[in-house]
TrEMBL record:
GO cellular component, one term: membrane
Record flagged with keyword Transmembrane: yes
Keywords (A to Z) from UniProt: Carotenoid biosynthesis, Isomerase, Membrane, Multifunctional enzyme, Transferase, Transmembrane, Transmembrane helix
Source organism: Acyrthosiphon pisum
Catalytic activity: 2 (2E,6E,10E)-geranylgeranyl diphosphate = 15-cis-phytoene + 2 diphosphate; all-trans-lycopene = gamma-carotene; gamma-carotene = all-trans-beta-carotene
Catalytic activity, EC: 2.5.1.32, 5.5.1.19
SUPFAM superfamilies: Terpenoid synthases (SSF48576)
NCBIfam families: CarR_dom_SF (TIGR03462)
CDD domains recorded: Trans_IPPS_HH
InterPro entries reported in the protein's UniProt record: Isoprenoid_synthase_dom_sf (IPR008949), Lycopene_cyclase_dom (IPR017825), Squ/phyt_synthse (IPR002060), Squalene/phytoene_synthase_CS (IPR019845), Trans_IPPS_bact-type (IPR044843), Trans_IPPS_HH (IPR033904)
Name this polypeptide is given: Bifunctional lycopene cyclase/phytoene synthase
TM annotation in the entry: 7-27, 33-54, 66-94, 114-134, 141-161, 173-191, 212-234
Pathways involved: Carotenoid biosynthesis; beta-carotene biosynthesis; Carotenoid biosynthesis; phytoene biosynthesis; all-trans-phytoene from geranylgeranyl diphosphate: step 1/1
């Protein structure tokens, strides 16, 4: 004989536990706030209704099957409000987190208005109808109570997030239907075992399957719609703030100003906003997808806001790097470099120091003279420039100028004489990127590194990590750098006859004549150099916001997998890479297991 608490121990809590195990790496501060808020609202909104309905005997419990009663409701039922909300929210997280929120915005005014208002009209009528038929003692009582109780809250949520819910209809449907079917199945077991009993006098006595009244199915369906819609209301609001950084300038914090901004984000119809930032982000994502499978996969595990801004940062770095690399004429290369430099000067014209950032209440839009860029850039490049200009207010200027120093190195055709040169070049083009990634992750997680010593320590490690990845990149690309760019980053000190080898790689562009063995020996030596710094650089991870520690490890481990592929190959591979499944396995291992190490002793910093 089952009791109510048995139902939780056997059927609901284990499912929540499994879902929590699957989703914990994705539960960022914002996600935690969202789930906590939806659970609290579910509890507060359902408690009076449930007391009212049990008071009117719509359903009842045998005293021996429950632990205790508060008001008219068993404690296990109060637990149910929270457990169901947790279960459905975690399940929904698995299905709804993968595409950037802004891609689900509806910019068509007519369809937006129809999708917003027609269901609201229907819900108003259903509320009134529900109120009329919810007469205690009548067989429409339970149905009527569900109708008048649920419709107002759906109406409210639909106003802000209905269009978003519709745009994401497939994942919304999976998020709602699966937990509904599961809870109906559990309900049927409990009803059969008489854990609770639905009063035939206040129910329609229509059964969806034997022993399962229609109202019970409707109840689970509607409550799951409310939970999923509630979660999506947050996703849409967060998405608006991530996309329209100047219109919604406050980042996540527990302050009334932020909550009020969030309310504005919730009610704001995205069709009243410009679609241009979203189109730019789409272009940025195309750049990432085309250029780097590794970072594309890794980006998926970052919290949504961090991910979006990392994509923008990646795309800007990628297109500027390509602008220089893909141009054969040195003169034009120099002009392009100048153009990028002018843009960076304009972006950071208001800064007084290298690491001065503008994160105050209303970040100033940088004054960029777009006409010259419209003339000289492709549409895709222009999109990436516009996108970075929307997030540059919280980024420091120094790393951008370091990136320029790296590009200048290439334009000037400087050679890499020794490992010191290799490390310097790598710190310019990738150490700088590491610093910028830290600023994105800290700002978008709503945290800050207050302590100067700790800031310097973390930035140092991020730069080191960038250098490590760049050296791996160079070890992998000896052949492509030579064939496509006529360039060599292998330190001359590694070569027996440096002038001849550099000539073969840079002028003849014929790397294979050096022999696979020699190429592999250069690569292996550089990878050994990278390995020397790699472990050290990982020490910085534990001081990053907790929600990005696992994802950073995924990004760096996937990328470092390339080094293993080079080392494991018997000959020098043309372009070593990890297969799709290897990337997935590395991600799972880094996210769920290896990252655990960085969650402990986070505050015992030996170095700062
Ligand atoms: C997840 C995600 C989207 C991350 C984006 C990271 C980012 C902004 C990368 C910019 C990459 C870029 C195009 C830079 C221009 C210079 C360059 C070519 C650098 C090389 C990158 C390789 O990119 P590529 O497009 O060639 O990729 P494929 O090889 O084709 O797959 C680099 C090797 C640099 C990469 C360096 C980083 C990502 C910095 C790593 C450091 C951190 C994430 C900070 C970690 C923090 C601590 C405290 C350790």
């Amino acid at each position: 004989m089952l009791t109510y608490i048995d139902v939780h121990f056997i059927y609901t809590l284990p499912v929540v536990a499994v879902l929590a195990l699957i989703t914990w790496p994705f539960i960022s501060r914002l996600e935690l706030f969202k789930i906590g808020f939806v659970c609290t609202m579910a509890f507060v909104y359902t408690t009076p209704w449930d007391n009212y309905i049990i008071f009117h005997n719509a359903w009842m419990y045998k005293p021996k099957n429950i632990l205790a009663v508060i008001g008219y409701v068993p404690v296990e039922e109060y637990m149910f409000f929270v457990i169901q909300t947790l279960m459905t929210s975690l399940w929904a997280l698995v299905f709804t987190r993968w595409s950037p929120a802004c891609f689900n915005f509806n910019f068509n005014k007519t369809s937006y208005t129809l999708i917003r208002w027609i269901p609201i009209l229907a819900l108003v009528m259903t509320t009134i109808q529900g109120y009329n038929i919810a007469v205690p003692g009548k067989n429409t009582f339970y149905l009527g109570c569900i109708m008048w109780w649920s419709c107002p809250v759906i109406m409210f949520l639909w106003y802000g997030a209905g269009n978003y819910f519709v745009k994401k209809s497939t994942s919304s449907a999976i998020a709602v239907i699966v937990p509904t079917l599961y809870l109906c199945w559990v309900d049927r077991i409990a009803l059969k075992d008489d854990v609770w009993h639905i009063n035939e006098k206040t129910s329609l006595n229509i059964f969806v399957v034997d022993d399962l009244p229609f109202e019970e199915c409707l109840f689970f369906l509607i409550t799951n719609v409310i939970i999923v819609l509630g979660g999506m209301a947050f996703d849409k609001s967060y998405g608006l703030a991530d996309t329209y950084t100047f219109e919604f300038p406050l980042r996540y914090s527990s302050s009334w100003k932020y909550y009020s901004q969030q309310m504005q984000q919730f009610v704001r119809a995205e069709c009243d906003m410009s679609p241009s930032p979203v189109n730019d982000i789409r272009q940025c994502l195309n750049v990432l997808k085309r250029a780097s499978k590794s970072f594309n996969v890794a980006s998926l595990v970052f919290p949504a806001g961090v991910r979006l801004h990392l994509i923008i940062l990646y795309a800007f770095c990628r297109v500027t790097d390509d602008m220089i690399d893909s141009e054969p004429k040195v003169g034009v290369k120099k002009q392009k470099l100048k153009l990028i430099e002018t843009f960076i000067d304009e972006l950071f014209a208001d800064r007084s120091a290298d690491y001065d950032v503008k994160t105050s209440m209303t970040p100033r839009k940088p004054e960029v003279k777009w006409e010259q860029y419209r003339l000289d850039l492709t549409d895709e490049e222009l999109s990436c420039f516009r996108a970075i200009s929307r997030i540059s207010f919280y980024l420091p200027r120094k790393p951008f100028y370091e990136l320029l120093d790296g590009y200048r190195w290439d334009v000037d055709g400087k050679t890499v004489q020794n490992e010191t040169d290799l490390l310097l070049y790598s710190s310019y083009v990738a150490g700088s990127v590491g610093t910028l990634c830290v600023y994105v992750m800290v700002y978008k997680s709503g945290t800050q590194i207050d302590d100067d010593k700790r800031h310097d320590f973390v930035i140092g490690k991020a730069q080191q990590m960038g250098q490590v990845l760049q050296i791996v990149n160079i070890s992998r690309d000896i052949v492509t750098d030579s064939e496509t760019l006529g360039r060599c980053y292998v330190p001359a000190e590694y070569m027996d006859n440096a002038a001849a080898v550099v000539n073969t790689l840079c002028s003849d562009r014929d790397p294979w004549t050096l022999g696979s063995e020699k190429l592999k020996s250069y690569a292996t030596r550089m990878i050994r150099l990278a390995n020397r710094y790699q472990l050290e650089s990982l020490e910085g991870i534990r001081y990053l916001p907790y929600e990005v520690r696992g994802p950073v490890l995924v990004a760096t481990d996937i990328y470092r997998g390339v080094a293993c592929a080079v080392e494991a190959s018997p000959t020098y591979p043309r372009r070593a890479s990890l297969g799709k499944w290897d990337k997935i396995l590395v991600s799972i291992n880094s996210l769920y297991f290896k990252s655990l190490k960085y969650f402990f002793q986070a505050d015992r910093c030996k170095h700062c």
